[in-house]
Amino acid sequence: MHLLAFDTSTDALSVAVMRSTPTGPLYWQHQGAGGAAASGSLIAAIMDLLRQADLRFQDLDAICFGSGPGSFTGLRTACSVAQGLAYGAGVPVLPVSSLMALAQTARAAHAPEVTQGCVIALLDARMHEVYAATYAFAGDVWTTLQAPCLLAPEQVAAWAQSAGAALGADKTLPGYKDGQPGPAKETGLVSGEERAPLLLKVQIRQTQQGPAPWHAWAGNVFGIYSERLAAPADLICCNALPQAMAILQVAPALIAAGACVPPEQALPLYVRDKVAKTTGERALEKAAKAGIAHIEAASAAAHIAQAAAHAQTSGT
What we know:
It contains 8 helices and 12 strands. With 316 residues, it is α/β, with parallel strands linked by helices. It has 2 domains: 3-265, Nucleotidyltransferase, domain 5 (2-Layer Sandwich), CATH 3.30.420.40; 278-316.
């Protein structure tokens, strides 16, 4: 299987190519600046990796991209490039949630040998909010427990605990005991995004004799919202971003499950509908700030007058 994957949902651009060979797959990857900068460098990076892999667009089995959530500019760039290349080459497109790619990135980096676990993927959404999703894995099968959503940092801990309840009264979610996060410590694929939690419970029970379940939070939010997240002190927190290599790792199972779509159906995953304040909202905010500034100025003036009167009284 020959695959191209890229993710531009964050400030980091990630591109990777997989070429199958008789002795196993070979990989090429590129890292660069993402966001708005990705629009000027993504295609050049893709062309360079395909040249190194000696592949043409027509040789690809699918073009995979991180569909979001994330930077609106980055998502539009990735989606438009994926659609354009797929139309021209006549190959299908595989949209992969950037949060799912983040979960796989964290697992591959911190727990490659673990057979079961759960990752809560968190990306900074700016505006004092985070994108969040919960994914569990048993063997090579990932399951979406909580679909991507938008939360305030203070909401994440309670929202994460609710994933345990989604599995039923027996609380078989990896890393949870009696519905609460289990002991952990800090460290420096998916065959259908909407599988029923019951299926995951069966898979986990089948592997209970293996290594202890691994439970972690992963993302780029810990340095930004560390105090507001209120994560358990002993929780594993992995600093990570979605990577194209992780998309390649989840892609074969997704393709086998029929997740590829024609180019016109490959769309970004927008979790937030609003990215800017309206003119009216900005005016109200400006007026409120002006009102606060006026009150503060009046208060300061009153203090000065009071101090002056006191000084005059003391002098007499």
